[in-house]
From TrEMBL:
Keywords: Oxidoreductase. It comes from the Bacteria. The lineage of its organism: Bacteria, Bacillati, Actinomycetota, Actinomycetes, Micrococcales. Transmembrane segments: none annotated. PANTHER family: PKSB (PTHR24322), RETINOL DEHYDROGENASE 10 (PTHR24322:SF736). Gene3D superfamilies: NAD(P)-binding Rossmann-like Domain (3.40.50.720). Belongs to the short-chain dehydrogenases/reductases (SDR) family. The keyword Oxidoreductase applies. The keyword Oxidoreductase applies. This is 3-oxoacyl-ACP reductase. Pfam families: adh_short (PF00106). GO terms for molecular function: oxidoreductase activity, acting on the CH-OH group of donors, NAD or NADP as acceptor.
């Protein structure tokens, strides 16, 4: 996170419980990948809006503990949980412990994710392919399934599920085959879940899928934003996702060029779109210098 973004995050923490009440006020919020990046920003926003309890799931125990200590105070209790979301049993056990200690989440934010940027044949089957699918796709499904029945049964207040996907799940891109596959799958699951809930009369549970282009968290270090698509700051991206979640917006796509690219890809012949995406928008070369967090 850059210094200006760190400052903004710190200000959000200091301003905890000073915002006008929202549906988050008095609620239980669970955030995966909560110790840093956008996950930290979601946790800080929950504290700012007066959440009763915040569950911070992350592999980085010390950092999660430090954030929990900072956000706890007044009527808000934040608690850190060291969880490897790629392990289904670990997810099940931590979900049960979170509910027992803090209550059924009113807001679930499936934020944890990893990226492996490489040509497909360079991916290791276990370390890259299987792990990416477990963290990015299966973990949100496992966790949501563990919590959903209790969320459906509790109609005392509105519920929200925010699934952090990616623009990579809307358009193919070289050197992102496995990551794109994980996010395409997440979008398909998230949108289908939204429709199932609506059709089965569970309108108090709203699902929002967030599909941003590149965000400067360090996760996509070295990537280059396509034409007219600046790399977003975490603060701006998290704000768009959060506000969409509060409103119950089904799909939040940022920036606007993500929608444009989806529209063009839908109406143009594949070879024509390939030429435009590659030579005009430079989408297909955006990962050529990708390094990630190293």
């Amino acid at each position: 996170m850059r210094s200006s973004e760190t400052s903004s995050a710190s200000e959000a923490g200091r301003a905890a419980r000073t915002a006008r009440p929202t549906l988050v006020t008095g609620s239980v919020v669970l955030v995966t990948g909560a110790a840093a990046g956008m996950g930290e920003l979601y946790a800080r926003r929950a504290a700012k809006e007066g959440a009763r309890a915040i569950a911070l799931w992350d592999l980085d125990g010390p950092r999660a503990e430090a954030l929990a200590a900072e956000l706890s105070g007044g009527e808000t209790t934040a608690r850190a949980y060291v969880v490897d979301v790629s392990d289904r049993e670990a997810v099940r056990e931590a979900a049960g412990r979170t509910v027992a200690e803090l209550g059924v989440p009113d807001v679930l934010i499936n934020n944890a994710g990893i990226v492996r940027g490489a040509l497909f044949w360079e991916h290791d089957p276990e370390r890259d392919i299987e792990l990416t699918m477990r963290v990015n796709t299966l973990a949100p499904m496992w966790l949501t399934r563990e919590l959903l029945r209790a969320m459906l049964a509790d109609r005392g207040r509105p519920k929200r599920i925010l699934n952090i996907a990616s623009a990579a799940g809307t358009l193919a891109n070289p050197r992102m085959s496995v990551y794109a596959a994980s996010k395409w799958a997440m979008i398909g699951w998230s949108e289908s879940l939204r429709l199932e809930l609506a059709r089965e009369g569970h309108g108090h549970v709203a699902v929002t899928t967030f599909c941003p282009s590149y965000v400067s968290t360090g996760m996509f270090a070295g990537a280059r934003g396509p034409l007219l698509t600046p790399i977003m700051t975490p603060v701006r991206a998290a704000r768009a996702a959060w506000e969409g979640m509060l409103a119950g917006t089904p799909l939040v796509l940022r920036p606007w060029t993500v929608k444009l690219a989806m529209a063009l890809r839908g109406i143009l012949p594949t070879r024509v779109w390939d030429a435009i995406a590659d030579r005009v928008f430079h989408v297909y070369s955006s990962m050529d210098r990708f390094t990630g967090r190293g």
